[in-house]
Amino acid sequence: MAHSFKLVTAILTLVVFFNNAFAHHAFAAEFDREKPVRLTGTVTEMRWANPHAWIYVDVENSNGEVVNWALETRAANNLIRLGWRPADLPVGTVLEIHGWQARNDSPTASLSAATLPDGRKLFAGTPDQPTQAE
Amino acid sequence: MLPYLWILLALITVSASGQTLPQTADGKPDLQGIWRAVNRASYDLENHVARDDMPAGVSVVDGGEIPYQLWATEQQLRNFENRSFEDPLRNCFLPGVPRIMAMESPFQIFQTTDHIAITFEWQQVFRLIYTNGSPPLYAGIESWMGNSRGHWEGDVLVVEVIDQNDKTWLDAAGNFHSEEILVTERYQLLDTDTIEYEATIDDPKVFTRPWTIKLELQRQTHMDGILEYQCQAEKEEASGDFERDENTWYPAPIPVDNEPFDVDASESLPLPTTLAEIPRFSDGTPDISGYFMADAGGANYGLEKHDGAILLPPSRGQVVDPADGTLPYQAWARAERIDRELPHRGYDDPTAHCFVAGVPRSHYVPAPFFILQPPGYVVVLHERMSWRRIALDDRGHLPDKIRLWQGHSVGRWEENTLVVESQNFNGKSWLNETGDVVSHMQTVVETFTPVSENQIIYRATVSDPIPYTRPWTIEMPFNRENQELLEVACLEDNVDLQHLKDVRDEYRARQIDEE
Fold this sequence. Notes:
The complex is a heterodimer of chains A (134) and B (515). With 134 residues, chain A is of the alpha+beta class. Helices cover 22% and strands 36% of the residues of chain A. Chain A has 3 helices and 5 strands; from the N terminus they run ααβββαββ. Chain A has a 5-stranded mixed barrel with strand order 1-2-3-5-4. In chain A, a hairpin with a 5-residue loop joins strand 4 (94-102) and strand 5 (108-115). Residues 1-20 and 125-134 of chain A have low confidence and may be disordered. With 515 residues, chain B is an alpha+beta fold. Chain B contains 7 helices and 19 strands. Chain B has helices at residues 2-13, 70-81, 83-86, 99-102, 231-239, 331-340, 496-514, and strands spanning 33-37, 107-111, 115-120, 126-130, 147-153, 156-162, 182-191, 194-202, 211-219, 290-294, 319-321, 369-372, 377-382, 386-391, 408-414, 417-423, 443-452, 455-463, 472-480. In chain B, the strands form 2 sheets. Chain B has a 9-stranded mixed β-barrel. A 9-stranded mixed beta barrel of chain B has the order 10-12-13-14-15-16-17-18-19. In chain B, strand 12 and strand 13 form a beta hairpin. The N and C termini of chain B lie far apart (89 Å). The interface between A and B is large, with 37 and 46 residues.
């Protein structure tokens, strides 16, 4: 039990670090650790911006309405140095998303993990593997 | 062969007026110095009459007029009409090339064999021009200022600027270009105090043919350093969007209830030892030039050790003096530090507004930086778009009233260590996202000690009698990497600030309701 707790903590720490690489503002101020979100959405746009890149996804809510969520991720420069390029995340890609929602309750979240339908993780590539997923 | 070489060198060093021109140690025209365009090109490159927001001026375009395609002429007219709100500079955005070269604020050129750095007063923009023949590492990645590669053609510096985006204008009159723009610049010394600057603009999407502007840059002999114009910070301070901190901003006094500041309490730490051979210049000075990234261990999230939590990365703690790793806060400043970690204070961190990070934070924000060692200076270009100029000539500090985000730095070499003393800070900076406190009274003594070919041990000792009871020191390694700087157009892409403002405003509204 203690062992698995440690493992969970380690993964969480890794995820948190991943998410905050190149941060330029306090994430805990903008996003709420009490509001974890799990979404499945379709990529409508990715903004390759600094100090943070943003992925926009259309998500259908329980009422059948489609809401466009903004998901904050690392700096574009960070992704570029890891070997990622804008063409690597085409519009229409389906993503399963974990994150924390913004405190102002807008459809905005800090992205902690994004998974493709086949289970591969987004932005887990290395400079030697400039592909969409590991 | 040799006599011809001498004749060639003699030609290079004498201008048309017969004046001897400054030359670098490797025999190139020496462009190093402070320069400024003295003309009206930044308002409108073409002939123009005076208007309420621009003085009249004569065209700097070869042939007088810009050869627009028909559709583009119409676009330029629309831009001109809407210039008061559509000009990217009205939003303090990065100006692009060649516009940055023609602006009225001064800039400083630093020159080494492999690189030329141009540091601008305006928004602390810089350009790093590679003259070492290396191809761009990230060709195809567009940016506001583009990617500059230079070479010498005789006594002319020729710079090709690629990969600029389509968002900048060429002047304040709405002259514009597309993302296909290629700029070829030519810099030639006419005399000791004049550079003839030419820029040829090739953009088949917008123009019918390549065209050239020509203007003179004049050496600013009365200046020994350029200052800062943080356009966005000035705007936000004027509008009230960025609020004064009465405890830290110049000229806040030392609080009357403070414990006395014990300047002698700090430990004298022995400098790190250089264990391996380090690169050196021919005069023996350590060569610490190049691209570095701090192994900062989470300094940007707190200088005292803390564990990570959701949305808060851990910090391994960087404080080496006091030995217990705790910052020696005055009681009120410790309370302020704790308050700054609350969500409604996230908006108050200057870097959340994309303002300059200050010293020592610029080194661990986290983003890489590039060190150059031109004659007489050490220059640091920070990817988060700011620069530091460290003069090595013992020139003393600026008058007390001149206050800067990056402070004023003078440096010296003590054996293998670069020692840098900085003061004249404005007190607006935070030391990290969780708000470690610093004021305008801070003085910083930094040491950069190369311990091997690829590592510098960095220390910064901060003495600040407003928030602290004694000086303290942090330490971290800087690691050299085989990389190139990219651009961070922070302000242009900062969509976080409104969220942070919402959190603050909601908190304030709740406070009012409770009253």
